[in-house]
Specification:
Distance between the termini: 49 Å
Strand content: under 5%
Largest sheet: none
Helix content: over 70%
Order of helices and strands: HHHHHHHHHH
CATH topology: AhpD-like
Number of strands: 0
Length: about 210
Amino acid sequence: MASSALKRGVTVMLEGLGMHLWGFPPNLMAPIVIQLGPLRAAGWFVWNMPRYERTLRAFGPVRTHLICTAISLVNGCRYCTYGHGLALEYAYLREYRRLFPLSEETIGGLRGLPPGVIRHHMVHAMQRAGLHTEVRWLERAIELTVAEDRRPTDEDDVRISHLVRMFGVLNSVGIADATEPDQAHSPLNKDAALKTRYARLRAASGA
């Protein structure tokens, strides 16, 4: 009974964190608590989320969500690919006032393909989007995701290496649970006007 109450309490706490950050209770929180255990899950978020938030501020949302999407694609996680792919769409629209060349559904269709194929399609889309300077970040994220030794080799690698390790856990839980995608894993998910504009433009584009 006490264990069940603890699991529920930690799940509610983590869902509240998602509600605060992104405006909805993420579907992945309950599976994380079940798979890691409530105390380990709480400690994991205490350790990893502040580092993630610092990276988001340092890299900006477009780069951060590109990296998270690429890692999740290579690892084969449907849940995180959708959440960060949609976050990328919102961030790109807000910053550049146009659509990213690939929709979140098209990006999700790359999941399960070889890393080199994922890289090819994502780099091509980034070049079409004018994100030429971001290509090296995506390529390094894919390189570290598939590497046996994921230790950072320079200062820039430190943040990417942490994201690779962090999403290794999130992706493994999402895959094991077959968690259904929910919404964008971004504060921009709370911007109703941006979401409406995105939906209207994407529908008009037919993509």
